[in-house]
């Protein structure tokens, strides 16, 4: 199941990729920092799936610049 999360703006050319439960620390090995990303409006979706013996889980977090067209 894919669920739209809405849109957000990037103005710094940088984005941190991480589970939101962690405190932001760009030097940590549990998160990534992407530099030189396109500024502007981005969209986000989450792909949820059922995991045996666990239940519903987030399988993918998808972020994309709205000016990029996926085929």
Describe this structure in words.
Strand 4 (40-51) and strand 5 (55-65) form a beta hairpin. The protein is flat, with a radius of gyration of 14 Å. The two termini are 19 Å apart. The chain is 0% helix and 56% strand. The strands form 2 sheets. Strands 1-4-5 form a 3-stranded antiparallel beta sheet, with no helix packed on it. It contains no helices and 5 strands. It has one domain (2-65). It has 71 residues and is an all-beta fold.
Largest sheet: 3 strands, antiparallel
Order of helices and strands: EEEEE
Strands ordered across the widest β-sheet: 1-4-5
Percentage of residues assigned to helices: under 10%
What is the strand content? over 45%
Shape category: flat
Overall residue-averaged pLDDT value: 89
**pLDDT < 50 runs, ≥5 residues:** none
Short description:
With 71 residues, the protein is an all-beta fold. The protein is built from no helices and five strands.
What attributes does this structure have?
71 residues; 5 strands; mainly beta
């Amino acid at each position: 199941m894919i669920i739209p999360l809405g849109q957000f703006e990037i103005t710094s050319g940088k984005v941190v990729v991480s589970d939101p439960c962690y405190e932001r620390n760009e030097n940590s090995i549990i998160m990534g920092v992407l530099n030189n990303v396109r500024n502007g409006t981005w969209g986000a979706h989450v792909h949820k799936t059922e995991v045996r013996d666990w239940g519903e889980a987030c399988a993918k977090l998808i972020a994309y610049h709205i000016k990029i067209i996926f085929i």
